[in-house]
Design goal:
The protein is 34% helix and 26% strand. Strands 1, 2, 8, 9, 10, 11, 17 and 18 form an 8-stranded mixed beta sheet that branches. It has a 7-stranded mixed beta sheet with strand order 6-5-13-14-15-12-16. Strands 3-7-4 form a 3-stranded antiparallel beta sheet. Strand 10 and strand 11 form a beta hairpin. It is globular. The termini are far apart.
């Protein structure tokens, strides 16, 4: 029996997969999305701090009010290893804290309105090229099926299993940070308008810790670490950090989440005959902060559009689909490349050097740079502006030479 044939199959029901599917279906092509879990969105992996500018770039309007947990974030408080504080702020909100489960459900609802068929509890086990199509082997709870597709958009997340089956690379596991996050209540001393970020090698080696407020006494408290298990690092941070422990020592854990973030910058190739890769599966995440919803969403919009045009043109070749890579790299390649170097540079600094960096950044002349260009999705502008500040040069020269000779 000949397998059923679809125009586009999307593998993965996270933000990137849902946005790609929605975008493709808007061009009146047949789109089927498979999610391996029983429900869309019920496996939370990130903190849900999304820039307003980034959400606007994804053309997401009429987001239900219950998706938002906090709409008042105007700035950030950054703490050095010793507790030195730098505050960055704008006059009006720049980011929202969202409930990631409800956010994903919202994305799935608008995808379905565009005509996307979503099937949960459906895992794509194998992909093979056959007669200029892809044959996908699909496993469900009590059944097994084969489906042919003209194009597959792979959005499996940070540990993809299908990329290699269509001849594409996967994110490096050596360049992952593992995260642990608690929803906590009864917190003291936080301001719901400010995210708190803790740069600390002792408690969050290879990344940083955060407190993201939901209200004046409830927050998402977490960290990323290249040392496992991340949950033990987080417990240590909560109990022992000289600043954070005073805010968290009487708090209660409501819920625990965990995940992993590819921070090695994008994979070398994101397209092949009949196939595109988007989101965390393509490592389209910010190496500095780990955020991937906005950048992965932008790439997913491009992937969905190109995939639909490919179906309409009846051309699924690698040459045709290469325009996806050209377009998403035009949008973010430079930014991702710079953020990768910034992350590697920050990880190369010892505590004494980090303290020195905080002292220099405190200077009043630098505050307008952070205020004017405090866009969490386009950080290259901040880097270029700081490089023009001559007082940084001796410090950057000294630490930069060490970085160049020690980086791997």
């Amino acid at each position: 029996m000949e397998p059923k044939r679809r125009d586009i199959v999307v593998v993965g029901g996270g933000p990137a997969g849902l946005i790609a599917a929605k975008t493709a279906a808007a061009r009146n092509v047949d789109v089927l999305l498979f999610e391996s879990k029983d429900k869309i969105g019920f496996h939370e992996h990130c903190a849900g701090l999304l820039s307003i500018k980034g959400l606007n770039s994804l053309n997401l309007s009429k987001i239900p009010s219950d998706v938002f947990q906090n709409k008042e974030i105007i700035g950030a408080r950054l703490y050095s290893p010793s507790g030195k504080l730098i505050e960055v702020q704008k006059k009006k909100p720049t980011a929202y804290v969202v409930d990631r489960v409800k956010f994903n459900l919202f994305l799935s609802s608008i995808a379905e309105k565009e005509g996307v068929v979503i099937e949960t509890s459906s895992r794509v086990i194998d992909i093979k090229r056959k007669n200029n199509l892809l044959e996908l082997s699909l496993g469900r709870k009590n059944s097994f099926e084969k489906i042919n597709s003209k194009i597959a958009i792979l959005a499996e997340g940070r540990f993809p299993k299908l990329n290699s089956q269509v001849g594409l690379p996967i994110p490096s596991r050596k360049k992952m940070v593992f995260t642990s996050q608690y929803y906590m209540s009864n917190i003291s001393g936080i301001d719901k308008q400010y995210v708190e970020l803790y740069q600390t090698k002792e408690y969050a080696p290879g990344f940083f810790a955060w407190i993201i407020p939901i209200n004046e006494e409830t927050a998402k408290v977490g960290l990323g670490s290249n040392s496992l298990p991340a949950s033990k690092q987080l417990d240590y941070f909560i109990k022992k950090h000289p600043v954070a422990k005073g805010k968290l020592n009487k708090s209660k854990i409501i819920k625990k989440t965990s995940g992993a973030i590819p921070i090695g910058s994008y994979i070398s190739r994101t397209y092949n005959d009949n196939a595109l890769v988007v989101g965390d599966a393509a490592s389209q995440t910010k190496p500095t902060t780990g955020g991937g919803v906005i950048l992965g969403g932008i790439a997913a919009q491009i992937a969905g559009d190109i995939a639909a045009k490919s179906v309409i043109s009846d051309n699924f070749s690698s040459k045709y689909l290469s325009r996806y890579a050209r377009l998403w790299k035009k949008e973010m390649k430079r930014n991702l490349s710079i953020m990768k170097q910034v992350r590697l540079y920050l990880n190369s600094l010892n505590n004494k050097e980090i303290e020195k960096l905080f002292s220099m950044v405190e200077e009043p002349k630098l505050q307008p740079i952070f205020t004017e260009f405090g866009d969490v999705d386009d950080q290259k502008t901040i880097v270029f502006k700081l490089l023009l500040y001559y007082k940084f040069w001796p410090f950057l020269l000294k630490t930069g030479v060490k970085f160049l000779f020690t980086r791997k």
